[in-house]
Amino acid sequence: MNDERIIIHCDMDAFFAAVETLHHDLNPEIPLILGSDPQGGRGRGIVSTCNYAARKYGIHSAMPISEAWRRCPGAPHGTGLYMISTRGLYRRASRKVMEILAKYADKFEQASIDEAYLDVTDYVKNDWDKALALARQLQSEIKEKLQLGSSFGIGPTRIVAKMGSEENKPAGIHITRPEQVMEFFTQRACRAVPGIGPASATRLAECGIETMDEAYSMGELALGRAISERSAKWMIRVVEGRTSNEVSPLRSRKSIGKEHTFSKDTTDVELILKRLEMLIERVFERMKKMQICARLVEVKIRYKGFETHTVHRSIPVAMDEISVFRRLANRLFAESYEQQRAVRLVGFRVGQLDMQASKQTILFNEEE
Ligand SMILES: [Mg+2]
Questions:
Q1: For a designed S-S bond to 176, which of 107, 143, 155, 211 qualifies (C-beta 3.0 to 4.6 A apart)?
Q2: Domain 183-246 has CATH 2.40.160.210
């Protein structure tokens, strides 16, 4: 194979919270929770996002704000700092981050508001040491110009680059050269790999397969009896560093989406999330029928008065596991919903579609 690429994945560290911390000149050691009004623990809304100090209490986005309060109360009895997101702040900061990153990439793909893939193969003239130096340079340029933390993963595939950026977070850089990919997956839990959803991970665990190297050493045939043949083939390719290394601006027209308009504009977050869940289920029914998987998830919120916001996130590999998309959609909603505003319409869409399987594998797919 002559199409070896050098992919860099950049992921900003607790982006929303970091931007707020900077904007309001806050102490990053104090747990910061962004979301709806907690009303002393009786609030009915959700957490938009939080900083690392708050994550130590197990708080995360889309969690009920009352649950966050229970784990880390705010004043006067607790140390948590509860705030409503500042509108427009994140988009402006994101644009500045992406401008810096895009300058150095041959091909550039913004995967979400705080995440991007860069193909830098030609820029660094195929030199992995130069790619590492470039990541360091990007990290310090973002820090100096914007006072924001970021983490980088460098690898020959999207998955390896993406997992690398998670490896030493925050302010981490992790490089996996082509000859190190197998080692990277040694003793790595299957469930830590994006593209292996909780359902598949559980099925693997039931067969005594916990790690990627265990899966690999079984070989494609035996592994295909535990999970589907298609998934087995794919897992082998992951460990061999042969999954997608394509970086492309997300402009695919092909997508499947559903929307729901409320009969009355509503601020009831639980109701909106319930509707969103129904939309996700209907989209996945269609995906199953068409036997396709997707690499892009998008959530649309239209407020009273027709102002419409869409947010998306792309994942490193196309997949069809509903639980993964559900979690992403809930996070996207939580991060972008402007608390207390009345919602008129909610929508869910998947894009960057891919055919799921060859005819041959369908014959074997009796379990699904
Ligand atoms: Mg991030």
A1: 155
A2: no
